[in-house]
Amino acid sequence: VAAKITAFATKDRVWCPHLKVALDASACAENAAAAMPMSDPVALKAVLRAFFDNGGRVFDTGQTSDANAEQVHATLAEELGIQNELFLGLKGYPGRSGPVSDPDVAKAQVDSLLARFKVRQLDMVVMPPAAEPRVWDVMKEAKREGRIRYLGASVTSFGPFPLFESVMRNAPLDFITVDYRIDMRGAEDRILPLAQ
Question: What pLDDT is attached to residue 92?
Answer without folding.
Answer: 79
